[in-house]
Amino acid sequence: MGDAHVDDDADVGGDMTGDDSKEGAPRSDRDGPHQHQPDLPEHPDHSGEGIPRTRRLRRIGLRIVQLLLTVAVTGFILAQLGVSLEEVRALDLEDWRPDWLLLLLSSLLLLAGYLVSAAFWGRMVAEMGGPRLSLRVSCRVYFISNLARYVPGKVWQLAGLSYLARREGVPVSVATGSAVLGHGMALGGAAIVGSLALFGGAERFRVPGAVALVGILGPLLLLTIPPLFRRLVRLGFRLLRQPAPEHLRIDPWFGIRWLALYVVNWAMYSIAFWVLVRSFHLGGNLPEVASAFSAAYLLGYVAVFAPAGIGVREATLVALLQPVHGVAIVGIAVIARLWTVVVELLVALGFLGEAMRESNRMHR
User: Which residues, 6+ apart, have CB-to-CB distance to 209 below 8 Å?
Assistant: First the structure.
């Protein structure tokens, strides 16, 4: 960011011409009669207000475009599946009474997945040459930064994670690098688990699913080859305009280890979703139903116009699981969204309150 800084004092001296250097001459004499300024208008110039107003209008326009894209993509997917509003309205809410024990178990499994993700990020910070963060600090940074995922644009979540990490004493390059690399590995894990939704699903999906699994797994494993992975990491730091951390440790198993760990992490999320589905008395085999959650998350993530993948994630779940659960999967997709938001927000707001109390104590 420092390269873009402009010294505002550079033009303070003005135009150093010979006429301007006449110290004894009155200002009017130096400027001459042709430089006479007219009287200022009674009302101040408000032209500067147009810039913020234009920016606000541009942001509002961008939000409208994002909303329209989200609705259009979601509607297109549902229309291709033949899901009608009449069928959705026909769902009997009396049938949506969950098994509360299974619902609680699914929420605890989801929370465990979040905690493991936070611990993984804290460990990655240490392996990249940063300080060893406690699990509590790692969770606080991770959960609070995740609140930014509900803002359009995926960059805010990464920026928030990097900013909060720096406040905990993590060097800038490590904070930025761990945020980007951690998300990259997590998406790789989601892609591997999510591809099983096709491979283990309906008969018509199995050949494309096998191709997708090989097509995803092959390049990911190739990129984890130590010499190639080291070059990729250093290229990433150059693109981020950050120096590589001085104590960066990339052992031969760094890439494959982290990819495998995030596969396990996404397996936890997916199993939690399967238990959620079971809590509403719906069937389906574990690999097919569980992996659909990872696939839906991944497609929602790459839909950059949709905050937190809203709409796109739900439509993908419906597309993958409609052959198994029929139109009931529309209700499950909505419930799954509420389920993830409630669990995540409850924990994040708890850590946010803790951070605010600590900040208040420091400023007393």
Answer: 195, 196, 197, 198, 199, 200, 201
Q: Report residue 344 as tokens.
A: 């995540």
* CB neighbour class for 340 (10 Å; exposed up to 12, middle 13-18, buried from 19): buried
Q: Could you tell me the CA-to-CA distances from 261 to 122, 127, 187, 250, 294 in Å, in that order? A: 13, 14, 12, 16, 15
Q: What is the DSSP letter of 328?
A: H
Look at residue 113 in the predicted model and tell me its pLDDT: 96
- d(Cα 63, Cα 330) in Å, to the nearest integer? 25
- Indicate the pLDDT class of residue 227, thresholds 50, 70 and 90: confident
At residue 291, the pLDDT reads 92
Q: Count CB neighbours of 41 within 10 A.
A: 7
Listed in sequence order, the residues at least 6 apart from 70 whose beta carbon sits closer than 8 Å to its beta carbon are 303, 305, 306, 310, 311, 312
**Coil/strand/helix, residue 38:** coil
Instruction: Tell the residue number behind the tokens 């291709």, with chain if given.
Output: 80
Q: Of the candidates 255, 251, 194, which has an alpha carbon nearest to the alpha carbon of residue 219?
A: 255
Contacts of 352 (CB under 8 A, 6+ apart): 144, 147
- Give CA–CA dist 59/81, Å, rounded: 33
Contact 178, 165 (CB under 8 A): yes
CA 351-148-338 angle, 5° bins: 80
Q: How far apart are CA 97 and CA 32, in angstroms?
A: 87
Q: How many CB atoms lie within 10 A of CB 94?
A: 6
Residue 218 near residue 210, CB atoms below 8 Å: no
Report how far residue 161's alpha carbon sits from residue 180's, in angstroms, rounded to the nearest whole number. Answer: 9
Q: Is residue 205 within 8 Å of 301, Cβ to Cβ?
A: no
Distance of CA 308 to the CA centre of its chain: 7
Alpha carbon separation from 105 to 161, 201, 244, 269 (Å, rounded): 29, 25, 42, 12
| Interatomic CA distance for residues 352 and 345, integer angstroms | 10
Checking if the pLDDT of 240 tops 70, the result is no
User: What is the full DSSP assignment across 254-276?
Assistant: HHHHHHHHHHHHHHHHHHHHHHH
Confirm whether pTM is higher than 0.70. yes
B/e letters for 311-330, b = 16+ CB within 10 Å, e = fewer, are bbbbbbbbbbbbbbbebbbb
